[in-house]
Amino acid sequence: MIPYASFTYFGLLLYPVIPAVLLGLFLRRISVWILIATLLMLAVQYWGTFTLWPPTLGQEIWLVLAFGLFQLAIASVFLRIRARARNRWAFYAAVALGLLPLVLAKTQPYLAPGSLWGFLGIS
Length: 123
Hints:
This protein has five helices and no strands. The chain has 123 residues and is mostly helical.
């Protein structure tokens, strides 16, 4: 399924959104639901890239996982530095590193045509 390409995708998005709204209205923690909904939507989006034999995942899912770990590492390091003292340069570095995938996506057609960075940086 191609994300954001048809009304069917937006209809599928209603399934995780409605419980999140209801949980939010009843003032419940929705962080666990957000994680579950994200994983389910990733599975729906990339189901066509999975193969049973040989058991592999598509390149896109590995890029999404690497992107998530990269962003988690940036946030973790920044929060540790921030806990010690307020450091303006650490903030600037964290923002610059966080925007790096977007920069790579914008320069990708010129530097490496056919690369998957365009897939990652915009989202």
